[in-house]
Amino acid sequence: MRELKVTTQEAERASYPVFLGSGLDEVFAQWLRDNGPWGRVALISDERVARVHANHWQIMLAAAGLSVVTLTFPAGEASKTRNTKAQLEDDLLAKGLGRDSLIVGLGGGVTLDLAGFVAATYMRGLPFVSLPTTTLAMVDSAIGGKTGVDTERGKNLIGAFHPPRAVFADIAHLETLPEPVYLAGFAEAVKHGLIASARHFENLERAAAGLLARDSQALESVLAESVAIKVSFVEKDLRESNARKALNFGHTFGHALERLSGWQLSHGEAVARGLLAECRISRHLHLFSRANEKRLQQLLARFKFVQEPFGHLEPELTPEPRGRLALSAYLQATGSDKKARGGKVEYVLLAAIGEVARGGENGDSWTRPVADDTIRAALWQTW
């Protein structure tokens, strides 16, 4: 088992441990004993994950002497809405949970974002614990305290910063995942290497075969390294005012595709395409080399992602004239992204594997505005 600590200078309550390993029941039980007493526990999960994992954690929590209420909602990004949040809150009120309660989110990114947002606002804020069950959630969603819901205008536009009290990433959960869901998280792990650590990128290249085989030692080592990179950015910038923006690499493009697909494109696949697209923009601006772009393509292919930003997409998501996606529609989708500033869409760009191309007059900005003509030349005309 690995234990990492998120330590922020902004607020003591924003500091918390991250436990990563197999079989974390007793670790969680000890944490509950050390940090209680608790009134009741609300275990929030989507219906699909609850069928597989909820009973295990209900028994564990009951054995720790806690009264457990389990709330579920339909699985999928389409449930990540204000309506679902309101229904969960109404259920908590109906069951009489008070301010001495603990919210536990069990699931992937959608569940953790929703459960964390409920915890941020219910009774003006309850403590929250993350039990991520996907690779993607373990290296990304569970850490950092960003919670929220989607709207028709974009992804994660309504939410709050509400750090968990602890994260328990039990890699035994990964054994039950369908392969596409399991592999989705490696897009975020690759991103961590691209923005911060050439060594992590190289480790992913070397460990790909073991990761594909779900080897527990390879998983624990690589996921811990990826988590450490995310933690380092969160510690520098809890509320995403500057350095933490680097974690959005690949997400300006990726979130636009997710939205344009009506949330049918998975987050992992969208981010993988975003990594390719934003590397291509970086290369078009003479910041990033073709050799490094090729390495990225090869690594993503190892994890069974496409090697082109718009590869194998439906016509409505394929650029004109070969498809029906107009540049204006893409630009409108990125324009409503929460990373836009002053009406200008900002991208994280790369100088090399492991290095962000900094912007601003003094090189102190982690993002750069990118002109529409550059997007057209880098992505539309090359397609």
Relevant terms:
Rossmann fold, 13 strands, single chain, alpha/beta, two-stranded antiparallel ribbon, Dehydroquinate synthase-like, alpha domain, 383 residues, globular, seven-stranded mixed β-sheet, 17% strand
Radius of gyration: 20 Å
Q: Sheet bearing the most strands, described?
A: 7 strands, mixed
CATH homologous superfamily caption of the largest domain: Dehydroquinate synthase-like - alpha domain
Query: pLDDT under 50 segments (min length 5)?
Result: none
Number of helices: 13
CATH class label of the largest domain:
Mainly Alpha
Q: Estimate the global geometry from the Cα principal axes.
A: globular
Fraction of residues in β-strands: 15-25%
CATH topology of the largest domain: Dehydroquinate synthase-like, alpha domain
- Structural class by helix and strand composition: alpha/beta
Number of domains: 2
Write out the strand line-up for the largest beta sheet, numbering strands in chain order: 1-2-9-6-5-3-4
Order of helices and strands: EEHEHEHEHEHEEEHHHHHHHEEEEH
Q: Into which percent range does the helicity of residues fall?
A: 40-55%
Please state the average pLDDT score: 94
SS elements, strand count = 13
Task: Kindly report how far apart the N and C termini lie.
Answer: 45 Å
Architecture of the largest domain, CATH level 2? Answer: Up-down Bundle
